[in-house]
């Protein structure tokens, strides 16, 4: 049972979308604080260049490609949901989940490799930031993927189709965080 | 008229009204905003008792060092002393001021004052309280683990907090960080709910400038919290990893920076002052208008002023770090912004005085609290100017002057503001009136000892008394002030004893209080247009709004008030 409060729209924006934007806003400052800390430290430590040289741009680049492509299917899912085609929306969301899974698997391979080379969380502050920032981002990818499975399961039965857009907004945010992380952790040498 | 019909169509469906409620579904796992407000309020009051008891215990140690403290059961050891002062501060801010001012009043008042039946996301609201409750359990358990609770001050500065060989509380310091982080998550969830509800679920006809001030203030405070807490959440994760996973974010030996924590902490910590201040100002504004029977002076100006305060509050944080080794040129910038922020706050003080001017003032208990909020907070604000100036702060830093200053801000916020709100909305919450005589005795029994505690502490701070010292007898130049400490501690005990009167009045009135009726204060805002306490769904027919909240003594009307939902 949904309260009447939930059905009103005084601001002219659907309640769910409004709330997701506030979630994104609060997440932006979390990652903002973390990345600002990293950038400040990075500027103070030019010697970290030798550490960033170790990270693999090709693996990072491939993951960037995977994540951006998964956002595309999230957009297409939204479009399908707008047209009331829940089945198609669900299928496209499953593609996005597949992207998330690929991203995590690649990440797992990458980290295993780096840890076996001796670059661990406690090696030095660069690696602390590297694993923390990418790790928190990866948790968001996993959480988003799991929520998406629930949304897709509903969408398949043509239920709660507006949620397809909401999880899409969140997914784009996760994407954009990675767009910041990729150059900061991989490209800037 | 069309609006009225639109409003009238929003009847509650009957099948919602009579489903079976068990004890668990009604009181523990409720999704009703009023019940969640009560859960937050009673948890906050319980934590206030613990925080107050901690204050009593360490003040007794300061006044009578090395002697057993009654009720504590023995002498207070130095690690216990540190844990007590640390957790007193953390509890009063994170587990008393936040849950009561933001969460309890926000939950209770927002739907009732904007005329809807509940929050937009009742289940997220319930989840918010559950996470908050978990944070309470984690914090309380941190006192009971081996080597006791964290004792490195509520600001949790590394390296003291980051390394177990310095803090000596391996479990306590991690649990402390986890408890605070959980508390932040709870308030982020709650805040998103508050902001979305106030933006989207207002009654038909309620425009932005028809929203009561207290709702505005809680919403702006929620946004401030949301915008400032993120970096500290990141910082808390980093601190937890430094404690337990061997990272070196705050360890200069391995390329980290302890000052980084101070920036992340105070980037949140200073806006946090305004996060708790704004709801208290909102409560004061609403209470004053009702008991001065006058329109709030310059409603829109107050609102713009609050926006300005909110923006400025993000630019003042480094005034906490003047002696932490920051660049003196930066200190200049932060001195200027800090002194600037006193302007909007001073403006609000003048607005309140202008609201009172020429009003029909009745000195009820809530009004006394509201008036004393202005008077006491003014002392806190004025003494802050000395600390905001980087030159003076070098001498005042970490002395009892600072301590007295922020108690003159936080006590009016977390205690006086809360009492103003509780005594004012008690009839709505429980349907009974509190006893006014007992309320007034409690008021004077709180205000007089409060000033007697903290005015001497300003003086002790000027004399050079530092904070967080276990036994001042070790400092010959400070030992001579022992009578002042004894006086302050005795006043603290007096004040705490008077709080028992409030607790008695609170519960006795539940049982024996006079029936309140829907609108005992003859107030305009929407919560007073339904029965007391409001039933499930708040109104049988949700109200429609025709005017602003402060139309008192409008010429040409028979009544001196004009409720927001009355067409003409």
Summary of the model, kept short:
The complex is a heterodimer of chains A (189) and B (568). Chain A has 189 residues and is an all-alpha fold.
Structure write-up:
The complex is a heterodimer of chains A (189) and B (568). With 189 residues, chain A is mainly α. Helix content of chain A is 81%, strand content 0%. Chain A has 7 helices and no strands. In chain A, α4 packs antiparallel against α5 and α5 runs antiparallel to α6 (125-156). Chain B is an all-alpha fold and 568 residues long. Chain B has 18 helices and no strands. In chain B, α13 (365-388) runs antiparallel to α15 and α15 runs antiparallel to α16 (436-462). Mean pLDDT of chain B is 93; it is low at 1-17. The interface between A and B is large, with 40 and 49 residues.
List the helices and strands and how they pair.
The complex is a heterodimer of chains A (189) and B (568).
Chain A: H1 4-7, H2 15-44, H3 49-52, H4 57-82, H5 86-116, H6 125-156, H7 162-187
Chain B: H1 2-8, H2 14-17, H3 23-28, H4 33-63, H5 78-114, H6 122-142, H7 164-167, H8 170-200, H9 213-244, H10 258-292, H11 299-312, H12 328-356, H13 365-388, H14 390-396, H15 400-430, H16 436-462, H17 476-479, H18 482-512
Helix pairs in contact in B: 4-5, 4-6, 4-18, 5-8, 5-9, 5-10, 5-15, 6-8, 8-9, 9-10, 9-11, 10-13, 10-15, 11-12, 12-13, 13-15, 13-16, 15-16, 16-18
